[in-house]
Amino acid sequence: MTKLNIGDQAPEFTFPNQDGKDISLSQFEGKPIVLYFYPKDDSPVCTKEACEFRDKYQKFIEAGADVIGVSQDDTKSHYKFTSKYSLPFTLLSDKGGKLAKLYGVGKTAFILPGRTTFILDKNHKIALIHSSQFNSHSHIEESLKVIESLKNK
Questions:
Q1: Per-residue pLDDT tens digits for 133-144
Q2: What is the CATH number of the domain that holds 141?
């Protein structure tokens, strides 16, 4: 598994979103990205995290960034999850965990997919790596602070 560090170039990817459309990192060229990996659609902590990203999404947009969530759930599950909670951002289906491995997102207790957030600057270099399996709130607050700090760079 790859171990990424702050300052590294984020690996390029192409994966299907909740609508089955392929999304690539390069489509967001020149734009900071919050790329957050989470374990499971509709689970309590993941739902709380997604809804908080939803509630603060406008702040991310105003800071010039976009939000992309990633889990191993399929596109149909993502579609239901985004519809149920009115999530305005992209969710990518990482069946088999290839994208998680590419970004070095491991599993907790060898079974539960990790909860890790990467902040990518406008050149898609990693500006922050934040991991906390059970504290979803810290991901959003930390992400917003870093995105705000990148706004003038």
A1: 555 566 677 788
A2: 3.40.30.10
Q: Look up residue 9 and give its two tokens.
A: 């170039």
Cβ proximity of 85 and 43 under 8 Å? no
Q: Token pair for residue 130? A: 């934040």
Which pTM does this prediction carry? 0.91
User: Taking residues 13-42, what's their average pLDDT?
Assistant: 96
pLDDT tens-digit series, residues 82-95: 999 999 999 999 99
Does any domain span residue 6?
no
Catalytic residues: 46
The total of structural domains in the chain comes to 1
Phi-psi region of 27 (alpha: psi -120 to 50; beta: other; left: phi over 0): alpha
SS3 content of the chain, % helix, strand, coil (to 5): 35, 25, 35
Round to whole Å and give the CA distance between 104 and 4: 6
Does 125 have pLDDT greater than 90?
Answer: yes
Domain enclosing residue 135, as ranges:
14-150
Angle, CA 30 vertex, CA 2 and CA 24 arms, to 5°? 50
Q: Does a structural domain hold residue 131?
A: yes
Contacts of 94 (CB under 8 A, 6+ apart): 15, 37, 70, 71, 72, 100
